[in-house]
Description:
The chain has helices at residues 13-25, 36-44, 62-72, 87-95, 108-138, 148-160, 177-187, 205-213, 230-233, 252-261, 287-292, 298-304, 321-336, 345-353, 359-369; strands at 5-9, 29-33, 50-54, 77-82, 100-103, 167-170, 195-199, 214-215, 227-228, 238-242, 263-264, 273-274, 278-283, 307-310. The protein is of the alpha/beta class. The chain folds into three domains: 5-121, Rossmann fold (3-Layer(aba) Sandwich); 165-305, 3-Layer(aba) Sandwich (Rossmann fold), CATH 3.40.50; 315-369, Orthogonal Bundle (Helicase, Ruva Protein, domain 3), CATH 1.10.8.60. The strands form four sheets. Strands 2-1-3-4-5 form a five-stranded parallel β-sheet, sandwiched between helices. The protein has a five-stranded parallel β-sheet with strand order 7-10-13-6-14. The two termini are 29 Å apart.
Amino acid sequence: MRFETILIVDDEASMRHMLRLLLERRGYRVLEAADGDEALTAVAGGDPDAVLCDIRMPGRDGLALLREIHHQSPHLTVIMMSAYGTVDTAVECLKQGAYDYVSKPFKTDEVVFCLKKAEERIGLQKENLHLRQKLKEKSPAGFIGESAAAEAVRRLIRQVADASFPVLVTGETGTGKEVAARALHHWGGRREGPFISVNCGAISAGLIESELFGHAKGAFTGADRSREGLFAAAGGGILFLDEIGELPLDLQPKLLRVLQEGEVRPVGETKSSKVDVRVVVATARNLRDEVRAGRFREDLFYRLNVVEIHIPPLRDRPEDIPLLARHFINDLALQEGRRPPALTEDAILALKGHSWPGNVRELMNFVEKT
């Protein structure tokens, strides 16, 4: 990435002239502005790729101009200059959105080096965005994998995405069950509606009924106003109930009623109301074993298990590990604004050789720490 046009904003004609000569010798096209109004006109015209801006100018000063430019063209690179700067001034410029700050008098190479750094940063951002787009095209909705197992999961998700019946997503902890649920939302007819996720094991037994179904004012101590539940909030979309095996046994008939009748009754209310929501549930447990042990209702299990999407553990699809690792590396590099490091063949072999008991979540954590 190379800038083509640089806008110099400085009230001193001699400074503008000196910078023009320097930059034109380096192959840049140069625009000049003697004050903030001229600068904003140039920016509005869409010509400059970067701006070199003095801080002390009559009328609109450099900081005020920086704020205007950042509001008008938030992605435009602005480098501030001043002969009267302090550390506080430099920090304020960066807080207001400047890429960098140079103090006058400066060496000619200092300005050029600053521009080169900015060019490299933008080039890396574009490269990372390109890599992410390629990955998205290959694995839509974030469900990443080239293995036959991953493709089978995606194929099944697409087949049932437009239906309204419940879906049971199974798999070990960390395999990506919520990712599969979000893919159902992304590919289905409810994509314009909300996707609301709740972990049934993370809410206390005394609160989960109110959380899911809502409550009337005065239904219990502290209920000083009515509140809709997550079923109502997810209307027109998908409610994802993670760790469904943790749902208290006494609430399971109420969930069954919602699935059968399409209506909820908030705690403390005498009347039910209709809801239009698709329910997707997930569990790392074997619900058949839970039914046999008396911890999960058999009728609810069969109502939920219309279609089961099983997410295989990472150890059963080792060919997906390099793709997943590169995805996490590219994500981190994009966040940090630097070039993503390459995965060597030795590194790939080492990653494939690990059993990953924590599955995709463990791999992501490993990449972040490494």
